[in-house]
Amino acid sequence: MMKLPSDNGKTKIGVIFSAVPSNAPTWPHAGYNYEERARELITKLKEALPDIEFKYRVVYYVTEWLRRFATDKSKLHTLEDIKKIVHEEMGDVIGFIVWYLGLWSAGITQAVVEANKPVILVDDVFCGSGEFILSYAQIRGKGYKVVKIASSDFNDIVRKVKLLHVLQKLRNLKIIVIRGSFPEWFDSYEKVLSETFGSKLIRVTVDELCKEYETTDIDKAKEIADKWISEAQSVEVDKGEIVKAARMYLAMKKLMKKYDAEAITIDCFPPGHKGLPAYPCLGFFQLLNEGYIATCEADLDSCITQAAIQFLTGRPGFVSDPVIDQGKGQIIYAHCLAPAKVYGKDGPMMPYRIKTHSEERAGVSVQTYWPVGEPITTVKFNIAQKAMSIHSGRIVNNVEDKRACRTKVAAKANVNAIIERWEASFGWHRVSVVGDYREDFIDLAKLLGFRVIEEDKPV
Fold first, then answer.
1. Which pLDDT belongs to residue 9?
2. Which alpha helices (DSSP H) does 12-153 contain, by range?
3. Backbone dihedral angles phi then psi of residue 342, each to the nearest 5 degrees
């Protein structure tokens, strides 16, 4: 029976190096030392990714023609050997790397992908190139969770391997969901999320949040409020509202510590109708700046998308209600908060202003200014449909307009295509991150077995 991937937090990846008898007249050349090359590559991987445990084997599962060149046929592997390595010896890995060191195997790729785990195919350039190209061509479009990389730049390979690490981090993710009550659909969503990502939802009532809020340290809340005020470009609300927001932040942090969670989302708007003691906007803003995942409106699809963004890029995701301006060819990402540490928690702080929440003209929220000229990638998972939408652009402006949400980040993009390809089942929210991560997210979706909708590509 196949073992389940490790649940202890450690990412384990299986690496299968394809090799042929060293004296065989094939690529890379006769007399090539496959074992030495495998050790060299594993050493480089471990140096680049020290938090990952790599289990590797050099496998000699070769065609009949190549078997004749083996001086010691006991070293050759059979199909049953491959299956035993994949399902038993490496049964607890999150996914596999098939690394082509020579030509030709008797079908290693097919044996590995049939384990139904994510697989990265890697060509050791000028060594396994023909098998790499043909193997991918043969399995492409057949529903396997496979991505590929052929590059002489080792950093490109490391970037692909990191995707498997993201999958492990999502598997270990705990998300606090705060609502007054939990609807009937919540159970089925929880089941699909667990089956797809392995992430866990922790149900917390508004009453429990309010109790934590009431026991917060007022002096600490005032310190936090003072810090927010001192760092803001301007403040347009009473300090008392900001202190209440700081108490909400402290209450959320206490809950996250209590449940050992990295993510939190609240059914939060409008707060007064949801039984909340304060607006959570500034608290979410702070949590995102610290490298946590914090999502408005108990939007679980956006929350898991934010988590994937954080784990993949080290940067926070901005959940928004996008607005299309065809006249300017722009999409404007609008919401009443956006993180200011757009390059990650150790990066610089973007400018921000503290204002009321826009729709109610009450409470407190934040208008954040994102860096003009930077590329921006926007994604959204649809868990129920096992699909992901994506589009990209370049930031051109931070819109100043009293209408709609406070933060408004405008990007140049193919907005006409986005309108045509927008799928209603994904809802209005999208999640954006500074940087060009389009290929990374498309590959991540493939490793999840998700359908990909490139919203900005013409129909």
1. 66
2. 34-48, 64-67, 79-84, 108-113, 129-139
3. -70, -20
Tell me which DSSP letter residue 105 carries.
B
Say how many C-beta atoms besides its own lie within 10 A of residue 225's C-beta: 24
173-454 CATH choice from 3.90.25, 3.20.14, 3.40.50, 2.60.120: 3.20.14
Query: CB–CB of 316/289 below 8 Å?
Result: yes
Token representation of residue 129? 């190139």
| CA dist list (Å): 71 to 66, 67, 68 | 11, 9, 8
Query: Counting every residue, how long is the chain?
Result: 459
pLDDT tens figures, 48-71 = 999 999 999 999 999 999 999 999
268: pLDDT strictly greater than 80: yes
Q: Tell me: pLDDT of 5 over 80.
A: no
Nearest 5°: the CA angle 307, 155, 107 is: 90
pLDDT tier, 8 (very low <50, low <70, confident <90, very high otherwise)? low
Q: How far apart are CA 339 and CA 367, in angstroms?
A: 9
Paired tokens of 346 = 């150790």
Q: Kindly give the interhelix angle for 34-48 and 154-171, rounded to the nearest 10 degrees.
A: 60
- Strand order across the beta sheet in which 352-357 lies: 234-235, 352-357, 362-368
Please name which of 119, 223, 175, 317 lies closest in space to residue 108, comparing C-alpha atoms.
119
∠350-356-360 over CA atoms, to 5°? 135
Q: E strands, 272-317, where?
A: 293-295
CATH superfamily entry for domain 11-170: Dehydroquinase, class II (3.40.50.9100)
Q: Which residues contact 305 (CB under 8 A, 6 or more apart)?
A: 317, 379, 380, 381, 431
Domain borders along the chain are 11-170, 173-454
Q: Is residue 459 very low, low, confident or very high in pLDDT (cuts 50, 70, 90)?
A: confident
Measured distance CA(300)–CA(384) in Å, rounded: 11
Structure tokens at 171: 């598997």
How does pLDDT run across 79-107, given as a tens digit for each residue? 999 999 999 999 999 999 999 999 999 99
Is 173-454 in the same CATH topology as 11-170?
no
Cα–Cα distance measured from residue 402 to residue 122, given in angstroms and rounded to the nearest whole number: 51
Burial (CB count within 10 angstroms: exposed 0-12, middle 13-18, buried 19+), residue 96: buried
Nearest to 357 by CA among 274, 414, 263, 290: 274
Token readout for 269 is 């708007």
Sign of CA dihedral 300, 282, 180, 358: negative
